[in-house]
Amino acid sequence: MKKVLSIILLLSLILSLTACASTSTTTAAPAATTAAPAETTTAAAADEPVTIIVTNGKGEIAAQFDQAAKDFMAVNPNITVEMYSVTVGDTVSIYDKLISAGKIVTLAMVEPYSVNDKYVDTVAPMDGAAWINETTAAFKNAEGQIVGFPFAIEGFGLVYNKAVVEKAVPGFDPLSIKTRDQFVELLDKLVAAGISKPIAYQTEAWSVSNHYSSQFINQAADKNAFVA
Fold first, then answer.
1. Domain 2-150 architecture
2. What gap in Å lies between CA 178 and CA 202, rounded to an integer?
3. Average pLDDT, stretch 126-139?
4. Which of 160, 183, 213, 224 is the most exposed place for a label (fewest CB within 10 A)?
């Protein structure tokens, strides 16, 4: 389960993109290098209103993101968080829409592989952030700089036909399946009961490549040499 969890975490990363946060950091740095005026200038900069834009690529959790933004602003009154969530069912990235409209996005939820491809020119390093020491799954760009942090928004699971399984395996307890060997044993019992093909799953290319196959490739000793 730990391996599966690490895959889930890596499937979705929030990446720090060039935006207001980077600007405020750059502006405050020179002030800190001076002696007496440094504290005054830094304090003034900290009190200045700041607006950050965050994009959520998972429309199903838009309400939770909106509430998180409200909670954050309640304790940080000088920071305005503009939340943009994709509409459920919309396949066009909300981040793409905003940058096409000239918006500067601060944080964006995107697919990890796009960091070194589609968005290679827009991500900003996050080296030095406190959270880096709390995870081994931070995402890095081609130069080895940390540009994204992982978080879980979805989980993988198996849905089974209760009537069919319990008929083939009387007294079946789904919580008893905790290892792959136990799962294989269950499948063998189903086959023995006359169910020749006990597994079915979506065959769309994106589901197979982004979800199912990644479960096995991520656990291969040499992921680059893995052949399906």
1. 3-Layer(aba) Sandwich (3.40)
2. 23
3. 85
4. 224
